[in-house]
Amino acid sequence: MDELIPCHNLCDGGVLIKNIFAGRVNSLSNIKNDLLYYINSQVCAVPIKTVYNELNLDDIRKFNEAVDELIGEAKLILTKKDKLISPKACGFIPAKVISHTKSCVFAKPLFGGEDLYIPIEKSKKCMLGDIVMLNRVKDSAKGKNAAVERIVTPGNRIISGKVLRTKRGAEFIADSGYKYSIPIKKNKTKGVKNDDKVLAKLFSEKESKKIFAKVIKVYGQSQSARVCADAIIDTAGILTVFDDATLKEAKKLSKFGINSEEIKNRIDLRNELIFTIDGEDAKDLDDAISIKKTKTGWQLGVHIADVSHYIKPGSHLDNEAMERGTSVYFADRVIPMLPKELSNGICSLNANEDRLAFSALLNIDKKGNLKTFEFKKSVINSKVRGIYSEVNSILMAKASEKVKKKYSLIENSLLEAYELSKILHENAQKRGNMELESTEARFKLDDNGVCVDVKKRTRGAAEEMIEQFMIMANQAAALYAKGAQIPFVFRVHEMPSPEKINILAQTMSLFGLKAYRIRQGLKVKDISDILEQIKGTDISSIVSNQVLRSMSKARYFEEPLGHFGLALEDYCHFTSPIRRYPDTAIHRILSDLVRGVSVDKIEKNYKNFVKSVSEKSSECEIRAMKAERDAEKCYMAEYMQAHIGETFEGKISGVIQTGLFVELESGIEGFVEIEYFPGYGFEFDGIMSFINKKSGISLSIGDKITVKVLSADVSAGKIDFIPV
Looking at residue 213, which CATH number applies to its domain? Predict the structure, then answer.
């Protein structure tokens, strides 16, 4: 490749370039940014040694790390002669393989553009998830045609699926991505039975153009959602067992309990009317509240389990928690971030037990504005273990005598809290907080773990109340850290991309909604106003889903970039340290601030820490959410297996080239191929409808439709409908 690239010429700026980068902090992030800036400004390949000198660096290790990461991200190319060049300068397109068939693969460009079709003979045996460099892009009947120049970063070769035994032998059917069955080598089957759920490793052989599979783990029958959840967990790389050293630390801390000397160093709130409100099945109670009405407003206490007191930096518990990042929730189990000795024991704010807490003490005026706040290390004793359904009955004046008796001590506090929460909710609406209709499902399993019912999870007044209080505490923590100018892990949610904004505007227009403001310059208030207008209507859930799909993914970041969805400038996650590592991390930082540790020392101790926590926690969150979502699909398919042939009413929730997604009232979603509709005259408009130009009949997102359950594949989490 070097032969095609002109030699590097330093005359356009050696001294100038060095001046640009002189004095920069040589963090990995800065080096990567500077490296990209420099290489993208060149029209030819540059020797690595020259690049290092040009950037005025003094840390060869970090430089090499930056180079390796950028090559892995397909942002740089390393030639055979140890030169660096941008993919664009070579005429290459970095892309990710998203679909695989026997005759071709499809790849999505990493940095924008339409999907590219790659004939199998030009694929260089790339597999699903591979990051590749593409070239020779041409127009073809199937769209833009390309060829794989090289595989930059291999994707995951270990995937889940099921086994199909045929006359040809055992074949592997992947859960997603591969549109054909993959042969399993005869000596690589591990004695699997037909329709077994398995984990397989994909590989190719030099002498063959085919991809083969090797079974590495057998789970059981693929039509069991519980079995499929096991495979999803393994595929995602989610840790399920704590190592001995971690468990030893947890048990020691649990037995040790609360040190009386530690209590002396904390504000004692054990006599305050503090209580928790959570789901009936919750065992990891990490937040409690207290409230007092004053002449000027309210004193709200948000008391959070002081997990960082127990989990010390560099301990086995700390390393394990950071690696897991978050607790993961499935229909039949919870995979905790912390061992039960902590999550359900010494850290959980159980009723009538002394617990160490980190308290946010908030003074709020009558209009619901946060006026002042303090963060204090405390010791608390929760008086009541509240349950959402019971508290809802009290707030709605529908409580039984038994429930009234249980909450008699805190009934007045509940009513005062409810009064405040309504004001906070109103304020959130005014500033533009998006209130998307919940898409969470609630599953009912029988004694054998089989899903026998699926319903949409509902939120009552109590859930809304606790949510508003947690948001305010999270906001206060972010303001506290920002004001102190210390390193921190913020929760950020950026504005959607212009492309997604445009699609959202088009979609809303097709629903008859006024979307001109969105086109002119999106503000979250514009979206929230539309959502409020359609609340309770037939299209509410559909529009909410479209809005959700258009949003950027919230993430953790070391800079306060704002939270678009909540319409807040400063936000973080402070209130769930038992189940989220970022919360534990910022507790550690804020603990130092509260103790009076100097800003300079905090800066030194945590500057690199917050960056690594932000990146790792964002990755773990995405991993957990995908695993939870994939498992939910399996449980939904399992439920629908008992309803094959039955008829349901639903709404069209999505439209793609090949058919329609239909969502039932329960939240279950299935697919209808467009070929199943009579007439075969439907054409996709590219956005949200199929239109039969002869009859004028259209099938659009939001339309009601009656469907019959055709099939349900638990292994793939796939449900197929046919129109009635």
Answer: 2.40.50.140
For residues 148 and 172, state if they share a domain.
no
Torsional class of 480: left (φ above 0), alpha (ψ -120 to 50), beta (otherwise): alpha
Q: Are residues 149 and 256 both part of a single domain?
A: no
My answer on whether 444 and 543 are in the same domain is: no
**Predicted TM-score of the model (pTM):** 0.85
Name the token pair of 415: 């009513």
Residues 6+ apart with CB under 8 A from 213: 172, 182, 183, 184, 185, 188, 200, 201, 202, 203
Alpha carbon 82 to its chain's center:
38
- pLDDT exceeding 90 applies to what percent of the chain? 68
- Return the sign of the alpha-carbon dihedral for residues 172, 178, 181, 186: negative
Same domain, 128 and 206: no
Residue 635 lies in a domain: no
Residues 64 and 170 in one domain: no
Contacts of residue 159, defined as CB under 8 A and 6 or more positions apart, other chains included, come to: 128, 174, 175, 177, 199, 200, 202, 235
- The answer to whether residues 630 and 232 touch, using CB atoms and an 8 Å cutoff, is yes
Residue 11 CB neighbours (<10 A): 5
**DSSP of 610-626, one letter per residue?**
HHHHHHHHHHHHHHHHH
> pLDDT averaged over the chain?
90
- 688 and 676 share one domain: yes
Distance CA 381, CA 385 (A): 11
Residue among 207, 167, 208, 202 nearest 184 (CA): 202
Number of domains in the chain: 6
Given a cut of 50, is residue 11 above it in pLDDT? no
Helix, strand or coil, per DSSP, at residue 663: strand
Q: Is residue 592 located within the same domain as residue 529?
A: no
Torsion sign over Cα 93, 94, 99, 105: positive
